[in-house]
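Hey, can you fold this one?
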Amino acid sequence: MTVCLLLLSAVAVTAAVPAPRALTRAEWPEREPVVALWVWQCLVATVLLCCLAALVLGTAAVFHTVRVQVFAPAPPAVTEAYDLSAAPPWATALTLLLACGAAWTTAMLARELVEARRRRGQARAHLRERAPDLPAGLPSARGPLLVLEDEYPDAWWMPGNPPQLIVTTGALHRLTSHQLDAVLTHERGHARAHHDWLLHLSTALATGFPRIPLFSHFCDQTHRLVELAADDTASRRCGHLTTALALIELNQHRGVLSCASSHRLLGERVDRLLEPPPRLGRRHRALTTAVAGLIPLLPLLIAFAPGLNALA
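Sure. Predicted structure:
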């Protein structure tokens, strides 16, 4: 059991510290944001699975009742292979630390979901004030697209079931039909990929564990990569130039394309659309996706290795 805990700790530390720093310095995520999002999710899943597996093994070693429940279906040889009765003192401290971490993670996720629901309710109430003729069932009241009377050009999507796309009359007057199609395709890309859940997860983990590089980088990169992925969705349908012009027309009056703006990402997005970076080859993309998908299996293999060896 000691070897399993040490291996799980080593894998978790590797995935939580050097791996995200190397990934943030790489250039290929800008070319393949969807693949990069998948890699980030796999790294996060690896760390969480390492902590979960270590928590289960540690709890089984510390508490006899839990040990009986966990290994009830297994033959005696499997239980003996883990040597849970000889747990070192540091295993108890690690188990308590992991238990506190699991409780804190659950609390942060619950808090983020509650806050997201509250913000969504406020947004719907605000929309009803701006369009008082809308009934209470706002998401399905007027189909997937809601047009608001407002000279301020804007367009966004509101998560829900189904998602609600919202555009102002100012955007309708400023954008051409092709540019408007690009903007709406961008927002639909967010909705179809359920980016809101990914943003909630990354925000909750970064808020709960701000000193862990993986979670802080995961939050920052997720907010960036979901926009790049939605831009790619729009550019595939409407073209790179049309999508770039739509971003410029929709945002230039806010000054967000200047270098001094806090929304500097918009300038990078426009540059990326006007000069698309070379994409990865299909084989390279498939290999990266497959390798990343195998990384979360490491904690499971480490946790089950003693039991499998005992049965062999």
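The chain is about 70% helix and 5% strand. Let me know if you want another pass with a different chain boundary.
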